[in-house]
Design brief:
homodimer; 655 residues; Chitobiase, domain 2; TIM Barrel; 3 domains; eight-stranded parallel barrel; 35% helix
C-alpha cells in the first residue's frame, strides 16, 4: 500500500470495502475485449489486495455473491449501470469503456466507504471527447509542471518502462478520460520528429498501454513539420507537396498505431508556425491536416489560444481578450467535421477569475471543446491549495444566451481538454491534495451536473480517508480554496500581477509594461481594464446581447468581474457598501487570514490522515501562508501608495 | 589583420606606424627574463606585421635607428620611460613589467597615429595591485557575461588551447594589469576543486601564460572547501584542522604555480559560506587564509560586498547601503598585511549612479582595493553604449575627507579590481565599443590623473581609426554615453528599476517588494530613499563629517544623488527651476532622443570605420534605441500614473 502513489485507487486503505469481498471473490465476465481485460485486471487486483487471493472466474452468474460484467448497448458509449443486490453486483457498460468506467466507479465509491445501497448508479458521459493534454517535452521537462519530471519522456525519447504509464492510464480511465495528447503543444525540435519512423515504434508502445484503458493517444504536431522533417521549402497547407507529406505521415502513424486519436495543434500563436505565414486561415490549416487523418478516423484538435504576444502596452485600444473571437468567429462553419476547436475557458489565460470566453456558443457550426488547466500555473502551482472544479463548473454552467436563454457552455461543446498536473512525483501531482483537481476534472467533464462538493467528497473519501467527519473538513478546505486564493491575489477579475514567466507570487506591475497584453492600468485614481463598447476596447460586444448588456453596464456586471470589464475609481462603491479600495484591503487581509486557517485546520487532522499526505500538504500550507502574506502586503502597499487612502479599519498597511 | 580580434593591438591597421619601421628593424635588448621575452615577441610581431620581416637583434645600440630595451631600477615597479630620438627609441622599465608596459605603450600610441614627438613619456603606476576579476564558471558560462562563453573554461575544466589566453594576457598587460583572478567569486561545486591535484596542472598552464606577461594568477576559493574537498565537519577558521588543510592547499598550489597570486574570497554574502557560520568575524576568516599563503608571498583579497539579501521590504529602517561599512569598519587594523579588502565603488551594486562607498578612507589601517564592474551588468549589457571611465574616475577622485580635505579615494587604496567584460566573442567584449571600458580600466588604474577623454581618444585611435576627425566623433560618443544611459534609466541616483535577475531593461517595481534591499519607495506624492540621519536610515553618518553634512542637507546634496539620499515630493524644486517630476520627464525624453543621435552619429561614420566594427555596433545602437524608448515611456507613464502631474511641455506621456 502506497497511498500517495495509489491516489484515489487505494483500495483497502481501510475497512470500508470489507463488504465487497463476497461479490469480488467470483467474477462472471460476459463480454470481452482489451478494455474488458483491463477491467477484469482491476477487479482482480482490488480483490487480491483485500484478501490476498485471486477471484474465481465463473461463466454463469450465481446466486451466492458474484461480480458480473456485461455490455448493454442501450447505455451508450461510455455509459454504465451498476446494480447491487444481495446476490450480485452487475456492471453493465454501453461499450467496453462503459464497463471499465463502471468497475472503477464501483471500486472508488466502495473504497471511499459509500454504503452498498448508494452504489446502484446509472451514468453516461455528457461529452464524447474527454481529453488530457500533457505539456511534456522530450527532454523530460514539463512546461508549467509542478510535480517533478515527465513520466512520458526522458533524454529526448519516450520512456521504456510502462509501469508508471499503465498506472496513469488506470487513474485517467477511472474518471472517464478517453483521449490523451502526450506531448507539449509547444512542439520543439526533437518532438517534431515524434511522427517519424525513428520514434513511432516507441510512441506506439505508449499508445497500446492507453488503448488498453480505452484512451486514444494524440500527438501535438509542428505545423512546419514538412519543412523541418522533409526539407520542403514551405508548409503552406494548400501546397500539394505539403498535403501529400501529411497524408504519408498519417498513413505511417496509423500503420504503427491503428487506434491513434489524431493531432493537437497550436498554430500561429506565441511565435509557433501556422497557416498565417502562407496567407491561409486557420480553417485551411486545420482542414488540410484533417483530410490526412480522415480516412483513418482521426481528429484534429486546433487550439484557439491565438493572440498577438507583441502588443504595445501604450496602445489601450488593443485587447488580447478579443483575440480568439476575432480570429475564429469568422470561420464558423468552415472547419471539417473531424476538426475540433479547443477554446480556453476564459479569453485570457487560465487566471483565477476571468469572464467565460465569448467564443462558446458563438460557433454553432463548428465542433468545439473547452480547455481547462488542471496544472496550477496561475493558481498556486501545487503549493497553494486551489481546488479548481468550482471554477470549471462556473464555465460549463455559464449561459451564453446564444440562441436564447439556457444555451449553457456545456451544451455548446463536444468535450473538454484538461492540461495535466501530473509528473514523476510519488503522489503524481506535487501537492497530494492537487489530486482532487485531476479526479475532479475527469468527473466534471463526464457529468457537468455534479456539484463541486460532491466530487471533492468522493475524492477525499477514496484518496485520503473514508472517515466522514475528517473527509468533511478536508472537503470544505478544498471547496473554499479557490475563493481564498482569489481573495489574496489580483482583485475582482483583473488578473495577472504575478511574477513574470514564473507565474507564482506577486509582482503587481510585472506584466504592466510588457508586450503580453495583460494590463490593470492602475493609476493614482483607479484601476481595471475598460472592455466596454461605450468607452473601452469593445470586447463586451463579443457576447450575445443579454450578456453584453450585463457586462457593459457597471451596475449589472457581476462584481467578481468588475475590474475585468471596467476601469473604476478606488472610491467606487460596491454593492457591499464598501469602496473598491476598501474591498481590496479587506479581501487581502481576510485572504491571508484564511490561508492561515487552512494550515490550522490541516493540523487539526494530523492524527486522522495518512502521514505522508499530512507532511507533504503541511509543508505546502506553510509556504502558502508566506505567499499569501507577501501578496497581501504588496497589493495593499501598492494600492495605498497609489491611492493614498487609508484602511478604514486601521490595520497595518506598510507605507 | 582581424581588427575586431586585435582590439587596440591592431598594429599596422593604417599607415600611422610607417615612421617606426626604421627603429623597429633593429632590436637591442639589454635586459632579460620571461616578461622581457614577451616584450621582444611583441616588437617582433609588430615589425613583422608592418614589414613582413623579423627585426635584426643587435647587442649594442647603433646610431642609425634601433629600438632599445633596458631596465632602470629608479623608475620603480611597473614604471617606464620611453624616449624617441633621431637615432633610437629607448624603452626603459623599472622592472621587467615596466619594460613590457613601455613597449606596449609605444606600440599603441604609434599605431594610434600619435606623432613621434609626443611619444617621449615617463609613467609609473599609481597602485601596486591592478587586477582583473573573471566571473567565469567551470561549465563555460560567465556570470553577468555579455560576450559569449568563457575563454578560460569549458565542460568543467580549464581550456587547453592557450592561443586565446595568450592574446588576452597581451591585452591586459598592454594596459598595465598585473593580476587576474580567473574564476567566479561565486565558487560552485566544480570550481571548489580547482585547488586540488586533479586540476592544478591545468591551472598552472594558464598561470604560466599570464606570468609571461607579468600577471599573477589568483583563484576564487570556497570558504567551505575543507568540508567539501576534505570532508572535515567544519570550516571554522580557528579550527586547527581547517588551518592545516589550507596550509597544505597553499603549499600544493605553490608547488604547481610558484608565481601564484593568492585567493579571492566572497564570504558570508548572498548565501555563500564564510566565517560567520562559526561565530568568527571577517578578519579571523581572512587572516587564517592569509597565514597559509604568507610563506609564499601570496595575498588574500576579501570582498566587502556583504549584506543581508533577505531584507524585509516592509522595514524602512534597514538599509543595504550601510552593510559594508557596518560589517567591516569595526575590523579596521585587524587584518593581516597580506589581506586586501575589495570594496565596490558604491555601497549598493554597480548602479549607473551611486554615492561613493563610505568605507573608502574609513579604514586607514587596512589594505583596501576598489572594485569596479567593467562588464555592463546594470549599465547596458554591452548593448547600450556606456563608457564607464568617467564614473570610475569620479570614484577615485572623490574626496572622502577622512583626516581632512584632499583624502581622495585614490589615496586610500592600494589598487583596484575590475570585473572583466571579456568572453569568447570575436571582438572579446560583445559590443566592440565596450573594448574602451577594458582599455580604460587598465589605463585609469595605472594613472587616475588621466582624463576620461584622453583615455577614450587613445583607445579609439589604436582600436578603430587614427583619423583624428573620426576619432573625435567616436570619442565624444563614448564620453557622453554614461550620461545618456543614466538620463533614460533610473533618475537621480535612486538606482535599480531593472528587470529582476536579468538586469537589462526597465521594471520600475521589479525589485520594490523583493528581499534585495533595493527600493525607491515611490508613492503618489514622491519618491526616493531617505538615508539621512535626521529622518531616514542614518546612512549619511557613515561619511566623514564634511560629506555627511553635504548628503544630509537636501540643498547641499549633489542633485545627481538626490534620490539616493532623500525622499522628495514630485513637486520638489531642483536648482534648474524644474520640479522633480518635470526633471524625470525631461531627462527621459532627452535621453531617448540622445540615444537616437548616437545611432545617427555612428551612421555618419559608416565609410570611415572598419566594416565589422560598424555592423556590430550599429546593431547595438538600434537595440539601444528600443531600450531607451521603453525606459522613457515606462518611467514617464509610471510616474504620471502615480503623480497625476502632466508634462508642462505637453509631450506624449501614455496614460
Amino acid at each position: 500500500m502506497d497511498m500517495l502513489y495509489d491516489c484515489w485507487l487505494a483500495y483497502g486503505k481501510d475497512d470500508s470495502m470489507k463488504w465487497t469481498e463476497k461479490y469480488l471473490s467470483r467474477l462472471c465476465v460476459l463480454c470481452s475485449g482489451r478494455v474488458i481485460s483491463s477491467a477484469v485486471k482491476e477487479l482482480e487486483a482490488a480483490f487480491g489486495r483485500l484478501t490476498g487471493n485471486i477471484p474465481e472466474r465463473i461463466s454463469q452468474p450465481l446466486s451466492e455473491g458474484c461480480f458480473i460484467l456485461r455490455i448493454n448497448d442501450s447505455l451508450g458509449a461510455g455509459g454504465y449501470d451498476i446494480s447491487v443486490s444481495d446476490e450480485s453486483i452487475t456492471v453493465m457498460g454501453g461499450d467496453e469503456n462503459g464497463v471499465l468506467y463502471g468497475v472503477f466507479r464501483f471500486l472508488i465509491l466502495a473504497s471511499g466507504g459509500y454504503p452498498p445501497e448508494s452504489l446502484s448508479i446509472t451514468e453516461k458521459p455528457c461529452f464524447p471527447l474527454r481529453m488530457i493534454d500533457q505539456w511534456d517535452n522530450a527532454d523530460g521537462t514539463v512546461e508549467r509542471g509542478y510535480s517533478g519530471a515527465s513520466i512520458f519522456f526522458e533524454k529526448g525519447r519516450p520512456v521504456s518502462d510502462m509501469k508508471r504509464l499503465t498506472d496513469y492510464a488506470r487513474l485517467l480511465s477511472s474518471v472517464g478520460i478517453n483521449a490523451i495528447c502526450i506531448n507539449n503543444v509547444n512542439v520543439h525540435r526533437t518532438e517534431t520528429f515524434f511522427i517519424t519512423e525513428g520514434l513511432l515504434p516507441d510512441i506506439a508502445k505508449i499508445a497500446g498501454i492507453f488503448a488498453d484503458y480505452g484512451i486514444k493517444l494524440y500527438l501535438s504536431v509542428n505545423f512546419a513539420a514538412p519543412m523541418e522533417i522533409d526539407g520542403l521549402s514551405t508548409a503552406d497547407p494548400l501546397d500539394e507537396r505539403v498535403k501529400s507529406r501529411w497524408k504519408c505521415t498519417a498513413d505511417n502513424i496509423y500503420r504503427h498505431i491503428p487506434e491513434f486519436g489524431g493531432f493537437l495543434v497550436k498554430a500561429d500563436s506565441e511565435n509557433r508556425p501556422g497557416p498565417h505565414t502562407y496567407g491561409r486561415d486557420h480553417a485551411e490549416g486545420a482542414n488540410m491536416l484533417a483530410a490526412a487523418l480522415k480516412p483513418f478516423g482521426g481528429n484534429v484538435i486546433w487550439r484557439c489560444f491565438v493572440y498577438n504576444c507583441h502588443v504595445d502596452w501604450r496602445d489601450r485600444t488593443t485587447d488580447r481578450a478579443k483575440a480568439a473571437y476575432d480570429n475564429f468567429k469568422p470561420l464558423d462553419g468552415k472547419f471539417a467535421d473531424n476538426v475540433y476547436l479547443q477554446i480556453k475557458n476564459g479569453p485570457m489565460d487560465f487566471q483565477i477569475r476571468e469572464a467565460v470566453s465569448p467564443l462558446f456558443g458563438a460557433m454553432p457550426d463548428t465542433n468545439c471543446l473547452c480547455e481547462f488547466q488542471i496544472t496550477q500555473e496561475y493558481t498556486g502551482q501545487q503549493i497553494d491549495l486551489c481546488y479548481l472544479v468550482p471554477m470549471w463548473k462556473e464555465c460549463l454552467d455559464f449561459d451564453t444566451y446564444h440562441g436564447g436563454e439556457g444555451s449553457l457552455v456545456s451544451r455548446n461543446i463536444l468535450g473538454a481538454a484538461g492540461v495535466s498536473n501530473v509528473g514523476s512525483d510519488r503522489c503524481w501531482t506535487g501537492d497530494p491534495l492537487a489530486g482532487a483537481n485531476l479526479y475532479g476534472y475527469g468527473r466534471l467533464v463526464f457529468d457537468p451536473a455534479l456539484s463541486a462538493e460532491k466530487i471533492a467528497m468522493e475524492w477525499v473519501r477514496a484518496a485520503i480517508t473514508a472517515d466522514e467527519e475528517t473527509a468533511e473538513v478536508i472537503c470544505k478546505m478544498l471547496v473554499s480554496s479557490r475563493d481564498i486564493y482569489e481573495s489574496y491575489t489580483s482583485p475582482l477579475g483583473v488578473g495577472w500581477m504575478v511574477t513574470p514567466h514564473y507565474h507564482y507570487g506577486v509582482d503587481v506591475d510585472g506584466y504592466e509594461y510588457s508586450p503580453w497584453g495583460t494590463y490593470h492600468y492602475s493609476d493614482r485614481n483607479g484601476m481595471g481594464a475598460d472592455r466596454t463598447k461605450a468607452t473601452g476596447t469593445g470586447y463586451t460586444a463579443q457576447y450575445a446581447p443579454h450578456n453584453e448588456e450585463m457586462y457593459e453596464n457597471v451596475s449589472a456586471c457581476p462584481e467578481e468581474l468588475l475590474l475585468f470589464f471596467h476601469h473604476l475609481p478606488y472610491t467606487y462603491m460596491l454593492s457591499s457598501g464598501k469602496t473598491l479600495i476598501q474591498h481590496i484591503y479587506d479581501s487581502h487581509f481576510e485572504g491571508a487570514e484564511k490561508a492561515e486557517e487552512l494550515l490550522m485546520r490541516w493540523r487539526s487532522l494530523k492524527e486522522r490522515v495518512p502521514e505522508e499526505y499530512y507532511r507533504e500538504a503541511e509543508l505546502r500550507f506553510e509556504k502558502q501562508i508566506e505567499n499569501s502574506r507577501q501578496w497581501r502586503d504588496v497589493i495593499n502597499t501598492y494600492y495605498y501608495r497609489k491611492s493614498g487612502i487609508d484602511d478604514i479599519r486601521g490595520r497595518k498597511i506598510f507605507r
